[in-house]
Specification:
By secondary structure, this protein is α+β, with helices and mostly antiparallel strands. The chain has a single domain, classed as Cathepsin D, subunit A, domain 1. It has helices at about 15-20, 50-55, 105-110, and strands at about 5-10, 30-40, 45, 60-65, 70-85, 90-95, 105, 115-120, 125. The strands form two sheets. Strands 1, 2, 3, 4, 5, 6 and 7 form a seven-stranded mixed β-sheet that branches. A two-stranded antiparallel sheet has the order 8-9. A hairpin with a 4-residue loop joins strand 8 (about 115-120) and strand 9 (about 125). The N and C termini lie far apart (about 40 Å).
Length: about 140
C-alpha cells in the first residue's frame, strides 16, 4: 500500500465558539482545506507553522516527541482545532512541526471520526460505512 492522502478542512476552534456566541460571523471563521497524509503510525494531528499562523491557533503548551526518523525534540502543541472529513469532525490539538512539508492526520483523529484506510482502494472510508459508531465505555 502506498501513501494515502485525504482532503480535510481545518478550522480555528476559538473562532467557531465566537461565531456560536454571535461575536463574529460564520465567514470570519479562519479555515483551510488541505490534502493530508493519513498516518496510522502518528498518534496525533501534525500541522506546520504556516497552517498554525493562517488559522491563528494559539500555542497551548510544549511537549516532547519522537519523529519517525528517531529525532526526539520539544514541539509546540496548538489549538483548539476542528478537523472535518466529509460529514465527520472533531475538536483536537495539533503538534506543530515548523517546517513540515505535509499535514498528518493521525490515529487518534481517525479513531475519533470512526475512519479507517481501505487498503485495496488506498483511501479513507468510514469504519462502519456511512454511519458513525461511537464506542461508549462505562466506568464503574
Amino acid at each position: 500500500m502506498g501513501i494515502v492522502r485525504t482532503t480535510i478542512t481545518l478550522k480555528n476552534g476559538y473562532d467557531m465558539l465566537k461565531a456560536k456566541d454571535g461575536l463574529i460571523k460564520e465567514p470570519e471563521i479562519r479555515q483551510t482545506t488541505v490534502n493530508a497524509i493519513v498516518d496510522t503510525g502518528a498518534w496525533t494531528m501534525v500541522i506546520n507553522e504556516e497552517i498554525r499562523e493562517k488559522l491563528g491557533l494559539s500555542i497551548l503548551r510544549t511537549d516532547s516527541g519522537t519523529l519517525a526518523d528517531g529525532k526526539r525534540s520539544t514541539y509546540n502543541i496548538a489549538g483548539p482545532l476542528e478537523v472535518t472529513w466529509e460529514d465527520r469532525g472533531l475538536m483536537c490539538d495539533a503538534l506543530v512541526l515548523p517546517d513540515a512539508q505535509d499535514i498528518l492526520l493521525g490515529a487518534i483523529q481517525l479513531e475519533a471520526m470512526d475512519l479507517i484506510i481501505n487498503p485495496r482502494e488506498e483511501k479513507v472510508v468510514g469504519a462502519h460505512g456511512d454511519q458513525v459508531m461511537h464506542l461508549i465505555l462505562s466506568c464503574r
